[in-house]
Each structure stands twice: as C-alpha cells, then as structure tokens.
Amino acid sequence: MRRPAQTSQPLPALLCFEHLQQRYRQVRSCSEAICAPLLPEDCVIQSMPDVSPPKWHLAHVSWFFETFLLLPFLPGYRTPDPHYDHLFNSYYRTHGAPYPRAQRGLLARPSLGQVLDYRRHVDQGMGELLAAPPPAHAGEIQRRLELGLQHEQQHQELLLMDIRHIFAQNPMRPAYRDDLKPPAGGDAALQWLEFPAGLRHVGHAGDGFAFDCERPRHRQFLEAFRLASRPVSNLDYLTFIEDRGYQRCELWLADGWDLIQREGWQAPLYWTRIDNQWQEMTLAGLRPLEPHAPVCHISFFEADAYARWAGARLPTEAEWEVAAADQPLRGTFLESDLLQPQGGRGNALRQLFGDVWEWTASAYRPYPGFAPLEGSLGEYNGKFMSGQMVLRGGCCATPEEHIRASYRNFFYPHMRWQFAGLRLATEA
Amino acid sequence: MRRPAQTSQPLPALLCFEHLQQRYRQVRSCSEAICAPLLPEDCVIQSMPDVSPPKWHLAHVSWFFETFLLLPFLPGYRTPDPHYDHLFNSYYRTHGAPYPRAQRGLLARPSLGQVLDYRRHVDQGMGELLAAPPPAHAGEIQRRLELGLQHEQQHQELLLMDIRHIFAQNPMRPAYRDDLKPPAGGDAALQWLEFPAGLRHVGHAGDGFAFDCERPRHRQFLEAFRLASRPVSNLDYLTFIEDRGYQRCELWLADGWDLIQREGWQAPLYWTRIDNQWQEMTLAGLRPLEPHAPVCHISFFEADAYARWAGARLPTEAEWEVAAADQPLRGTFLESDLLQPQGGRGNALRQLFGDVWEWTASAYRPYPGFAPLEGSLGEYNGKFMSGQMVLRGGCCATPEEHIRASYRNFFYPHMRWQFAGLRLATEA
Amino acid sequence: MRRPAQTSQPLPALLCFEHLQQRYRQVRSCSEAICAPLLPEDCVIQSMPDVSPPKWHLAHVSWFFETFLLLPFLPGYRTPDPHYDHLFNSYYRTHGAPYPRAQRGLLARPSLGQVLDYRRHVDQGMGELLAAPPPAHAGEIQRRLELGLQHEQQHQELLLMDIRHIFAQNPMRPAYRDDLKPPAGGDAALQWLEFPAGLRHVGHAGDGFAFDCERPRHRQFLEAFRLASRPVSNLDYLTFIEDRGYQRCELWLADGWDLIQREGWQAPLYWTRIDNQWQEMTLAGLRPLEPHAPVCHISFFEADAYARWAGARLPTEAEWEVAAADQPLRGTFLESDLLQPQGGRGNALRQLFGDVWEWTASAYRPYPGFAPLEGSLGEYNGKFMSGQMVLRGGCCATPEEHIRASYRNFFYPHMRWQFAGLRLATEA
Amino acid sequence: MRRPAQTSQPLPALLCFEHLQQRYRQVRSCSEAICAPLLPEDCVIQSMPDVSPPKWHLAHVSWFFETFLLLPFLPGYRTPDPHYDHLFNSYYRTHGAPYPRAQRGLLARPSLGQVLDYRRHVDQGMGELLAAPPPAHAGEIQRRLELGLQHEQQHQELLLMDIRHIFAQNPMRPAYRDDLKPPAGGDAALQWLEFPAGLRHVGHAGDGFAFDCERPRHRQFLEAFRLASRPVSNLDYLTFIEDRGYQRCELWLADGWDLIQREGWQAPLYWTRIDNQWQEMTLAGLRPLEPHAPVCHISFFEADAYARWAGARLPTEAEWEVAAADQPLRGTFLESDLLQPQGGRGNALRQLFGDVWEWTASAYRPYPGFAPLEGSLGEYNGKFMSGQMVLRGGCCATPEEHIRASYRNFFYPHMRWQFAGLRLATEA
C-alpha cells in the first residue's frame, strides 16, 4: 500500500520490546483473522489492477519485515525462497525491480499454505530479533518495527477493500461472511458548525507515531468556514441521483464527466437496482441500502459533484483537521467487526473518524518543509504526491489505533473501491 | 473449446448404452486425473484471455452434458445452481448470454470443491439417463453423448495447454508434474515423399464419429507435391534462428512481421536462453531442449516463415489428408503420459499423428456442401470459419481415440500456446 | 496499395515504347483529374489508419516509378528531396524503413504544390527514359512500367475510396463533386444460373498483364453450383435489415458478431436514416438510396450473414472465375464517371464486372506453385496472404482496362470502405 | 482553450467602446498574422489530441464572439453556417454538444478560406455591435468583450504551441518561419533571494481584468523561503541529463517514472541529439541549443525531478506570486517576435515574466470563496480544477498585456508542448 513513513524523531531511552512483541503478534494475527473466512481460490484473484490477491497482501507485509528488519539486523536470517524478494516487493524500486503490479493475479504459487508458512518463518525471525535486539540498532529497529506494524494495518484495510471488490465481481454474489449484522439506522439531523478565520496549526504534533507526510507541523491561515455535523447519507445521495445528478454536466468537473460517460456510472460502486429497489453488494452479500448510513464507495468526482449540487463544497484537509483536532476518536472501526458504515444520531459533530473516509478538496502534496525517510523507506509516501486527493478520518475497515486527526490518506480522484464518502463544507 | 459438431448420420439399430456408460466414466475420470496434481489456487488462474481456468474447464464440459442431454431428456433433473448456466456456457449465444470469456479468471466461486460436486451431480444424472434412455430419443441421445465425450476430450487437451501456460507465467517456474520423463531423442533423417497429381477425396468417410466440419466428403484436384517424412525439429528451428530468421522481414507475411516486432518474439513460446543454452518451460518445469524432438509452440506465422526460409512451404490440408489417409494412427498421444513431443527415427513417413499439431497452408473454411448441426449445437464449429488456419494430426496432449486423418483443428495464425509445429512440403 | 506483381513472362520482341509513353501520360493524368476537385485541405486528411491522404497517393505512385525505374535505369536521375524515399515508401521493407502508415495524416509538407512538382519531375524523367530505353534492360523496363501503371490505377480506385471516406466524416457532409448524376434504377429480376461439376482451370492464361498472385493457371475440381444472375441490391439488403438481420447472432460468424456489437453497426457504411428514410453519403453528398442498385460498402461479415439469412452462401473465387471466364467486360467502371454502382435490368448474368466488388467465400492464399516477383517487388502481393478474403470483378471506381476475370482483390473481412457488395451462390 | 472567466466586478460608468473596438481589431489581426506564414495544408493538421488545427483555432475564437456576444446582443445576426456552432464549440457542454476534440483533424472543411470569411463575418457583426451597443447591456457586453479578447490571446499562444508541435512531427523538419533570430545568450549567474515568513495576500486585486480563478484575493500564511534569481537553463538541465537524471528512479514521482519509462523520454520535448550535439526543433527549424536560455518544453514531472536532483523544490504558486507582486512586467513576450526563450544576465531577480512558464508545486484548485461565472461561461475555468498543476509568469508566446502576477495557467503534469520551464525554490 502506498502510504508515508515515519520521520526519525527522538525515541524514549527505554525501549519496551516486550510490549512491542505483543503488539507484533496481535497485529499479525489480525491479518490472518481477516483472511480466515477465505478459500484458497479467493486468495488468488486480482479483480482489477488496483486490487491485490489476498495471498499477496499476506506475503507482502511479511516481506516488509524481512527486508527492512530481518535481513539487516538478524544475523544468519535466510529467506525461504529467493523469488519472494521479487514477487512481494510492492514498489520499492531503489530496493530492486518489483514484480509487475498488474500481474499479481497470475501467481498461483506460492500457494496460500506456502504464504502462511512464510509468515511463520518471518514471525519466528522477528521473535528472535525482538527477544535480543542488537543494542547499537535498538532505536532504528523500534522505529522500523512501528512502521512495519502500521504498514500491516494499512494492508488490513486494503484486504477488506479488495475482498469486497473480488466478491462483488462474481455474478453468484457470494458473501465473504454471513454473520455480519445489518448496519444500524440513524436519523437525518444535520447541523452546520462554524469555524472562525485564523492562523492554525496543521500536521502531526508530539511524540507518537505519524507518517512522514503528516509532518512537519506548520501554520496555515484559514478563512472562516462551516462544516456539516455528519457525513452525507445514502438517503441524501439518492436525492441527488433522483434529481438527475449523473445526467447534468454542469455539476461535474470535466474529467469526472468524461469518466462517468465512459464508464456509464449512474450510482456508487456496489449499488444495484433490483425490482426498483436499490441494494448494495456488501461483505455480507447483497443487502438493502440503509438510508441513514453514510454514502460509501464514491469517487472524488462524485463527491465533488454532489457537493456542487448541494450548494456546498468539500472541506480542505486543513479545515477538516482543525475541526477534528479536539474531537474524540469515536466511530465505527475495524475492531467493531461491523465492516459497514453505520447510521448515527443527533446534531453534534459526529463520525469524523471511522465509518467512511471523507474526500477533501485538497490535492495530496508535501507540507512546507516535508522530508521523506532515508533510503528505500523514503519511497513509502513522497513519490505518490501527484494526481491524488487527500481523504481524512478512517473508515469501518481501519484499525482504531491506526488513525488520528493528522492522518492523510490519498487516492486518485477516479478511485472508489476504498470506503470513501464525504462531508459538506461551505464558506462561513 | 470451439470445434465442429456431429452430423446426423444413420445409427446402428442396436445402441450399446452399456458400453457408452463405460466410455462416459472413463472420459470423465481422465479429466479429473489431469487436474489431480493441481492445487485449488492453480485452478483459478486465467493467464491470458485465450486461457480458461482449469476449474472452468471441469465445469463447462459438465454444463455441456447438462444442457444438451440432462435438461432435455432426463425428467426432473435440476441444476445445482441456476448461475451455472450463465457461467459455464462458453459461446452458445442462441442458448443464452455467456459469461464474458475474458473474465473467467475473476471467479473464485464456485470453488474447486463445488465444481467437483457439480461433476458428481451431472455424473449421477447421466447414469440415470443412460441406464434407461427414453426410447423415442435414444438415437439423439447417443449422438449427443458421443459429441459430449468428444467435446470433453478436446477440453482435456485444452486443460494441458492452459496448465502449461499458467505455470509458465510464474517466475518461480513451478512444475505441474515432477514425474515426467525427458523426451526421447531421435535422429535427423529426412526424406521427401512424392505424391502424384490427381483427383482426390477429402473429408470424413464412413460411419464413425466426425465433426460436422469434416463433412461432406468431396473431391479436390491436387497438383503433384512432396511431403517431408518428419516434422521440423528443434535443431532445424535453431538453425533458422541462428540464421537471423526473426530479423529478416523478407521471410515473413506482413501481419507476422508486425506481430513479432510488436511482441518482441525471438523464439518459440516457452523457450528461454539461460547461460547461453536454450531451455524450455515444460509441464515438468524448465528443461533443456531435445534437439531431435519436433519444434512446438510456434504460430502459423513462424511456421510459414520457417518454410519460406527452408525453400519450401506448408502443405495444404488436403495434401496432408491424402498423405495421412492410409497411415496408421501412430505417435505420441495423451495416453502415453509423456506430455511432450518426442524425437523419432528413420526415413519413413512418421509422426503425422500425435506429438505436434501441424500447421497447414489452408484457411479454415467450410467444405463444399457443409451444413452445421441443428440448433445451438450448430454453433460448435461453423461460426469460427473466418480468420483461422487449419492444423492437422493431433499432439502429445490429444487422446488417441479422438484423432483421425480427416480431423480439422483450427487456430488464429498468431496463436501458439497449443502444441503446434510444422512439416514441410514443396511442389513436386 | 497492397496488390500482386507481374510474373516474369516472356515478352514480345518488338517493344512499343511509343505506345507505352502515351499510356503512361494517360494514366498519370487520370490520377490528377481525380484530385482536381479537391482543395489543398482535403489532400492532407487521413480519416482512419487504412486511409491515406490524397496527396500521399499522388506522391507514392510517383515514388514507385522513381524507385523501380528511374533510379535503376536513368543515369543521373536525382530525387527532388531525399526525404521522399522514406515518406512515400508504402510497405517495401526490403527497400528501406517506410514512414509509419498511421501517421501519414501528420504530413502537412510536402505541400500539394510540391507533390505536383514531384510528379512533374518524375514525369520528365520517365519521358527521358522511355524516349531512349537502354536496350539491355528494355524488357525489364517494359515489365516494370506496366506494373507501375497498373499500380497507379489501383491507387486511382483507392483515391476515390479514401476521398469518399474523408468527406463522409465531416458533419457538414460536403460533396466531392456536385455534377454527378443519380444512379440509374433497374429491376429486381433474378435468375439462378447452374454450373455443372467438373475439373476447371483457374488463374491467368495468356500473355497479357496479370499480377503474380493470379498465376500459375492450375486445375481445380468444382462441385456443381448455382450463381445468382445479379448482385444483391439495396432493396434486398433492406429486407435483411428489417428482418432484424443485425440483431440475430445465429446469422453471423463469431468474429463478425463481436465486431458489429463492438462497433454498433446496423447498416452498411455511409447509410444513415433521416426522418425515417435511408440515405447514403456518396461522392455527390447525401442522396436517397437507389433500391435496385447493388448494395455497397459492406464487410465480408455482413455479406456472409446476408447470404446465410437468404439461405445461400458466397461463391468461391474459383466458382466466380469459372462463371466470369467467358463473359464480356461489361459494367460500370471509372471511365463512366458515374462513381456509384448502378441498377441493371433483365434475367441474364449481369454486372459480374464493375459496379461493386463481390466478396467471395475464399481466403486470399497462394495458388499451387505461386512464386512472387524477385526483389522488393516480391513484396507487392505475397506478403499479404493471411487473414484476408478475395473479392472479384472490380467496381465503379476501377479503370476498365485494369480488371479481368482472373483478378484477385483482397481485404480483411472487417473492412468496408472499398466498394464491396456480394452475389449469392448455392449448391446445385 | 480552457481558462478561467472574469468575475462580475463593477465597471467604470463611461464605457470606452471606441477604444475597445480598436483593441478588438488589433487582437484579431494578431491571430491572423500568426497564421500568415502557414499553407492551407498546415492549417488542417492535428498532431496529437491536445493539439488543434490552426484553422480550428481561428474559427473557435470567432465562435466565442458569435455565441456570447453577437447572438445574444446583435439583433438579426445570423451565423454563416449552422454547423459551425457544433464544430467550433470547444467544451461548453451546457451550450450544446461539442464536436469531439480528438477529431478536429478530420475536418478538411470549412476550408481555410471559409474560416477567414467566417472571421470577416464575425468582425463585421462585432463592428456593428460595438458601434451601437444596446445601453441596457453595455456593461455585460464590455465584460464579455474583454473576456473574448483575453480568450483570443490565449489562443494566440496555443496557436504557436500547436504550430511548433505540428511542424516538429514532420521528418523533413520544416521551419514555420525562416526569419527568426537565434536566441540571445546570457550568463549563468544565480542568486538565492530570501523571503520571510508571514501572512500574505494572494489573488487578483483591483479593477483590471482577471479570470475568475484568480479571485477572490485572500490571505495565506507562508513559511520563509528562498527563490532562485533566474529560471533553470539548458546548461543546468544538460548537467542533470548527464548525471543520469532520467535513469535514477529515486528522483522521480512514481507517475513520472512510469511515464518516462513508457514513453522513452530522455530529454525535453523537441531536443534531439545529432552527431553528439544537442539540437532543438524550434519554430525556425532545427537549431543548436542556447546553453544560457531557460530550459523549455518539460513536463511537471521533469521539473520536479530536476528540482529534487538539485536539492531544491518547486515554489508554490503563492510563493511565486508574492515574489512577483512588485516586479516589473519584463521579459520576452509575443510582441518581441523572438518566439524562443532568451538568455539573460545578472544576479537580480529576472525573467519571472515571459520566456518560459514556470511550473509550481501547486495543484490547480479553487481559491477559498471561488465562484465561477454565471451560465455557460462558468465552464471557462472551474471545471478543469482536478489533476492539473499551476504554472506562472507567461512565456515568449504570451501577449504582454495578457499576463500579470496573479495569472494562473494550468496543465496536466505529463504535458510539455507548452513553453514550460522551472525556477528553483528551497526552504529558507
């Protein structure tokens, strides 16, 4: 997954490797739990070039630990198969030539079983390394371990995005899981929160982990703005559709209009109309839309067109961050095991975190003074800073401890297989 | 697989359904034996649009029996899943809208296990039908059963072609089987056999099974010609390569030259040069070339260019058939379990059958008076009669009882994942 | 234009160079007359990759004389610009790297004026050469000159095809000429002519000019067949359309069905329905269809589907040639200056020549014993013998002296910007 | 051309229509002067989808006056041809369906002569309208006229960009003009100017014309930064090339690296190495590079990679504007008739305006509070605000009166046929 890397901040003198080992085990087992309902057949499919087969995700995150921790720091460590370095390198070109992304679905082998063996092999090496980290590199090991764990958490969300896409291509409409509850309902209450103009701080502050692209913290002047108390709901979005939103070119950016004409888009991804009723292909199979849940799986172009239709606009990422800065981390995350955005209730600012990523009006570009990590890890974030838009807040497939107010996610404006929705803003 | 269908020839009064049931079981179990060495992961891959996942082959041939025998003739028969009719219809558009061919690799489900269950389900239905065929339809049932068995045999060869292609894409170069013997060697002896001019009969004669496109038997006048006693060998073909055959445009048909430039072809499919030695990716993994085995996995354009370079030409399909008409069915077939073309010895006309399909100079077009089968089965062959070239003789992956002198195989001239080679001819 | 070249037949001892010079002037001026109604702007357009800008045709045919006659045989001849050899080489790869075909429309320069100057320059050289041909090469010069003239005549037809296509793309629907008469009407009379089975001779006989691909004359055995007395008319074809011919997959070859779905074809090229009436974009602009004129601008796939719908088939090229062998050269040719297929009358075999090219059932492949010309001229025909179908008889844009019963034209089965129609045949 | 439209600012009570008429004539004649050296053949070519044929530009800018001024405000005005509204509408979808952009090169007609007649026709109408503007609409007419003139000036630059591209495709390397002087030399002196942190104003201020996207003027907080006194020169850029800049993936954004691999880019557009010397295809034909002139015709990706290689970065558009705000409008513009970026001398801040557009680090997005124009003119700018990057300062093909410090030009990051270079910045 393409995401930014940790800057080299000072570390506490006492390194809690025991705690880290426990976290390592917990994060690793979570990835496998996500794949537990899958058959070997499911783990091979690449349903579009942006999707990776689940098996590949499981192997790639292990390769990350192997490449950046075991090979440099664990003497005598051997990879189980020399091909893995080629096959499971995602995009680190300074490290070596990665296997072509669009061909990941051609790899029947290594089998799922072999991939799980590879995970065991890496886990064993990591156990050895963390049991007795060479003191000269303890700081660097801790930093890279943290990055490796954050990286695997990103892939947990990617796994769920990709699994949903893979299952949705199948005319049999199989369910990834049949034990998922339907999403909670909610109400349509909406309030506009006002934020005054002023010089604000944006970007990650403090000691905790953050990717390099969230730094440095810096000042931005914001004009006064208003922000909606909740994300746009399925019901709101249906009104847009019924008002011929997809047929009115004046609502769309030119590239977006071309896209929806070319692709024939008439609704969010995964929506389908059966017997005059909108349904949605979810991780639990086909289900009726929950009207009060946030709309999900829309592209930037759709979010932007909706906002224009609504007489509003998308918030900038700075506006979003200012609004979120003092909000509690509350919302629907991976840990809830609901795997679907939920309805909410009340007028207060809600669901900034979790449920759906919120498209912002901001292009993904470096902050003033941005410096990527050293070496191959510098490819983690910075090289993707063109053509993409920022999304904020995490979603129902994001691990809760992975998200924070300064977190910058990014996708191309045409992409919509991520759990992406929107929240409206206007000038004050 | 796209191949022609049986004409409605007279049938023997006594229908040997017991014998047919035995043949049915034998053919069906052969398909499963071919897939036995595969993992579920292998069975999902579609390595290019022309390839189908092994799982799909196993299901499609069952769908054929279900659609053309069980549903029309076995009262009360129910398909296990109504989606199967859509998913496993290959190209019978008059029957219903087939699932898009290029997307067969997106289907994780039905799983391999479910496909094997589907086979059991169809086998049980076929057992019931053949145990007590309704007398009014016994003749038609026998004819369609024969067609269904021939059809499944075609897919046995396709399975092996596709498995080879799937495994060859993987940089780990896995072997489909590791118990295969290396191909037998041979000698380079070559003789030119002369055939006089005259009016000949071409096309299937007699009562046995033949596809509709092999009929009607008709007359063709052939000028005198000479035919090589054996196929072109790897050694021969290496000489062509070393003589810069792939660099000399005057040897190539215009479409062929464009193709090899665009694709960068420099050798047959599956050949690779490692440490200055040519090796071949076989069903047994990477192996050194056997110099005296027939060259294999070349396109029509390569066969044609080779022949021009050699001062010869390809035989027409009529020439080939005339030469083969009185030859014994001898050569390397599926039953040998060698799965690789073999070297041969001696000056006599040899290896017309088995080992490698031989490209001919003839476009695949209808014989004078050709009539396709009635109904959807009429789509079996006739609708493919444009743009393709005829190949003759079968190969090492063809069941021996499936081939005969009048058999017309056909592929587009750029295709080469089938076991295809050539034999030279000249004017007399 | 891709067409076959003359074989090296013996020549009459007395070479009539004076007559040849006169023919040279006549053929050359005819090309310029075709372009006279064009503006410089028209001469630059390449409306699809198969089309060449008119200016390019005018230059290329001159390059042919320059390359194969002036440079080898006229001492001291210099080309006006060394770039021309690259720009105006169509496809003679053994001669040098041709400028990419699909980019001919990028060439504003040389201007039309410069191209006409180039023609004058070549004409002057040819005048000198033909006034005093070096006796040692007189035979070869005469042969190449004949080939060059035939070549330019082919391009005269191509010019008209391409001009029609260029003008038809323009929403303003400009007319190439506004002085063209509407096509003559005719009647719907149709008779089936019977031809008995037997051994026939096919291919060019005698001393006159023929392309290499028309030779050698050879024997073919033909089963008895019937041939329609006239081509299929617009009225006939409208019945096919109204009978849902373009919607019924069982009528189509598989490649044809895919094509018409992909392209959305519902009628011949240039037909358009305005206010419920079919009109046709002709060289005279938009005009109502003449019901009794032969249908024109259809692909092989459409011709084949029509024939299947009509319960008939296309004739093979041998059948066509046998029927045409003793027919007079009568029909609508370039010289008529009608530039549109015409209706006809009566039951007798008619319009075999001229009006519309007739698709045959035969793939364009070499005759037994075919040998291409020596050297680069060998690229004229032979290298196009894959994937294309034969058409016979010439059309309203073909010079009358250019056509004969043995003439083999060829196009890919999807092409239809040539003046192509069909005539039905059946088994006897 | 896609560019922003004027906001509805208050107008001076006294409308100087006489002055406007004079400006109208001057701007219009400048477009024709640019096309004067062209042949009709040159005016038809569309050398890539982004390029428009010169003829089309000449017509489209006239259509703009016709559509937004003559048809609404001049009673009785008639367009010379009803097709023009379709053919010459660039992208105003709310006005009607524009003729497909990528097919502009298919239009031989209207001829160049007819297009010039169209211009006369529009000029006459404009003369009538401006001689007696209906008082009730005088303000709106003046605003739209100003917009129409600015629009035509944008197309003057586009004409020169497109002409350069058209001529450069031709292997004959024709010169658009042979009377152009070689660019002036200069020196390599470079100084870093420091700008302190602070709250700045960005965006157009005052009464003069500006496009809607330059407004509203608003505050931005800028951290301290340094800006190079001059653009990067050809000599600088050659050092980057020789240091293997195009081969080192770590210097490139991921999309940029993919692009240069796919396209095989090794140098700026129009550069070519002949006999080991770099030359450039200019509007005067092929010429040696002037080492001290600014590098030109590079994409955003190349500018960004160069900056990274140089240990610097691109300035943001706000930084650029702050630096330019109090600089005189000095540099090489269209009026100089040099048509090539020039070398410069000295350490002072120079060539911010003219010579080459300077890529900035900023995505082209709306300013806070941005509001597009009403009606179809609202499509002028706002709908292009995705995926593009801002360039600042104008170039040698920009009319001097068309540029200002707040002017925002924008192109996709892969584009480089505009006159685009860069200037370095760093953190302070």
From TrEMBL, chains A, B, C, D:
Pathway as given in its UniProt record: Amino-acid biosynthesis; ergothioneine biosynthesis
Residue ranges occupied by any DinB-like domain in the UniProt entry: 24-158
InterPro entries noted in UniProt: CTDL_fold (IPR016187), DinB-like (IPR024775), EgtB (IPR017806), Sulfatase_Mod_Factor_Kinase (IPR051043), SUMF_dom (IPR005532), SUMF_sf (IPR042095)
Domain Sulfatase-modifying factor enzyme-like: 192-341, 349-425
Pfam families: DinB_2, FGE-sulfatase
GO biological process terms on file: ergothioneine biosynthetic process
Keyword Oxidoreductase: yes
Keyword tags: Iron, Oxidoreductase
Coiled coil: none
SUPFAM superfamilies according to UniProt: C-type lectin-like
Name of the protein described by the UniProt record: Ergothioneine biosynthesis protein EgtB
Organism: Pseudomonas mangrovi
